[in-house]
TrEMBL record:
<dbReference type="InterPro" id="IPR023393">
    <property type="entry name" value="START-like_dom_sf"/>
</dbReference>
<dbReference type="Pfam" id="PF10604">
    <property type="entry name" value="Polyketide_cyc2"/>
</dbReference>
<protein>
    <submittedName>
        <fullName>Polyketide cyclase/dehydrase/lipid transport protein</fullName>
    </submittedName>
</protein>
<dbReference type="InterPro" id="IPR019587">
    <property type="entry name" value="Polyketide_cyclase/dehydratase"/>
</dbReference>
Amino acid sequence: MIVVERSLAVHVPPPVALGYLTDFGNTAVWDPAVRESVRHGAGPIVPGVSWRQVCRLLGITTELTYTLVGAEPGRLMFHGRNEGATCVDTAVVRAAPTGSLVVYRVELEMHGLAKLASRLIKMEFEKVGNRGAAALTQALNSLAPA
């Protein structure tokens, strides 16, 4: 299993950070591997809502379906799946003196022949994780009042 986790200090209160992170469509703004993330259906975002996400990593484009499987105070969990992988994204948001501390964790399990590329994918996920953390910090901070 590939695990990548980043901790971010941002200048918005936890409800603002959680509100932004709850809409998984926003990953297309800050995750450098995500090309598109489109929600299925309409209405409130509650557990069971899903998104079709198109990602490009190591020159390969793939599509996953992500579902919000957990939403509790200060914690979100999304489950993504396609034929080659299962992915769990977890965001934990806590109050911090200057706003919030966001801990974002991705757990990726490769299936079938894709498992053979796990080592290479892990290295690329680390790079993407660094760029994504910087972009997510910037996206959340842009929500802070002027």
